[in-house]
Design a protein that fits this description.
The chain is an alpha+beta fold. It folds into two domains: 4-169, Jelly Rolls; 182-283, Homeodomain-like (Arc Repressor Mutant, subunit A, Orthogonal Bundle), CATH 1.10.10. The protein contains eleven helices and eight strands. Strands 1-7-2-5-8 form a five-stranded antiparallel beta sheet. A hairpin with a 2-residue loop joins strand 3 (57-61) and strand 4 (64-68). The longest helix has 19 residues, at 229-247.
Length: 285
Amino acid sequence: MYKWRESALMLNAHATVLPGGAKAYRVHGWGVDAAHYDNPVHKHSCVEICYVMEGVGTYMDNDVDYPLRAGTFFCSKPGVPHQIRSRTGLQLLHVAFELDEQQASQEETDAYLQLTEEAEVCIHDADTAATAALWRALLIPQQVEQALPASQLPVAAGLLLSSFYSLFVRAALPQPQPVRSSTHLLQQAKRYIRDNLDTDVSQAQVAGYLHLSPRHLSRLFAEGIGESYSGFVRRERISRAAYLLKHSDLSIQQIAIQSGFGSVHAFTRAFTREKQQPPGRFRGE
């Protein structure tokens, strides 16, 4: 599925010096092992993150054993004795890195310290995590033409390292539920209305599209722009019609339809009230 040796060579050649915010990290080396068996008990002066793509085994960290299986991420913290054991071999990805204190901001320093002090040792069943997708994207697939260009590897690698913090430090915390802000909902409503003026943009229709009550939608407009829902729709219809009158050869009837007015009579009456002149005179006919 992947070119293991070539992937390791590519990463170690092109993804040890990272751009942007990730430049605060010094990468010591990337590992891409098709079959990783036992290694001796040892420790690092930096952080090492590993990702088990396939296989089973055991990870010992400070004399505590953790089971390894496909989809497991584990974190080796600085100075902590650890060991990987597997009788059948693991498809294992790993990267060792540390913070460059001269390049790091206070925020980056705090994040790295949290990783070294508070990180979960093992995260299981994380194949669908963004971190897993980012790491797999760094590898060279059998169809080489589908690989990321070498020039893009540093950016992608930087994103991967940044993702370790949220995966390991916050993994045990409940994930916040997405909240749709009033501003975002109002923008969605306004965009829907503008995109669909020639169809049904009644308050009930738009509220249903946004999964809101009509009363809630009305309050969004009143509090957000100080205008009623119907007033906003009427203004948008007139604005659309005025643009078409000046920038198209459409007939008055066609413009009335595209602007969402039920008839030429309704269009003419509303346009004249707003612009103080009928559509034909506004166009210059």
